[in-house]
Write a structure and sequence with these properties.
Helix 3 links the parallel strand 4 and strand 5. By secondary structure, this protein is of the alpha+beta class. Helix 1 packs across helix 2. It has a 5-stranded mixed sheet. The longest helix is centred in the first third of the chain and has 18 residues. It contains 4 helices and 5 strands, in the order βααβββαβα. Bound molecules: coenzyme A.
Length: 162
Amino acid sequence: MPPRVRPSTPDDLPQLGRMGAQLMRLHHALDPARFMAPPADVEAGYASWLGAEAKKPKALVLVAQAEDGAVVGYAYGRLEGRDWNALRDPCGMLYDVWVDEPHRRSGAGQALCEAVKAAFRERGAPRVILMSAAANAPAQRLFARLGWRPSMVEMTCELAAE
Ligand SMILES: CC(C)(COP(=O)(O)OP(=O)(O)OC[C@H]1O[C@@H](n2cnc3c(N)ncnc32)[C@H](O)[C@@H]1OP(=O)(O)O)[C@@H](O)C(=O)NCCC(=O)NCCS
């Protein structure tokens, strides 16, 4: 059975900090020049950020809870307004999704993404947009399976290498 998805509570903050830090480390490892290096206190910083975001009506912080009560994943997103730089009308942005490794491939990622879609739909968003590291093929397979389509390609040029 996939873990249960529920809104986060302040008690979840240490787990959210732990998982957010891992998400940041994963991205830095995928492309160290493009994705910033996690600072020493990244767990505390991430916990503090998500705790503050969770209090905002436009934000969404959900956790996946296993049968034994352990928090094993999370998703974070926020309703964003029209953005002229991105040529993007108001939408839900999905910023983070994480599932702890031992709990992967059992539907937790899908359950979190479906819950994000449902919550944003309920709040009137016409679509949910996310960005995924180019090298993160597993995540892109999950998103494609759940209805996301490629809509933007980010490219990075290292000036020091020229
Ligand atoms: C991406 C991630 C959230 C998926 O979580 P998950 O709980 O394993 O996902 P699910 O079990 O719901 O998988 C649903 C489907 O997604 C696809 N998928 C997920 N992980 C995959 C993988 N490693 N390889 C290929 N397909 C994968 C499959 O189609 C899968 O269905 P299946 O298991 O029936 O084949 C998880 O691997 C993760 O936390 N990765 C690290 C963080 C990350 O990359 N986050 C996304 C940042 S953009």
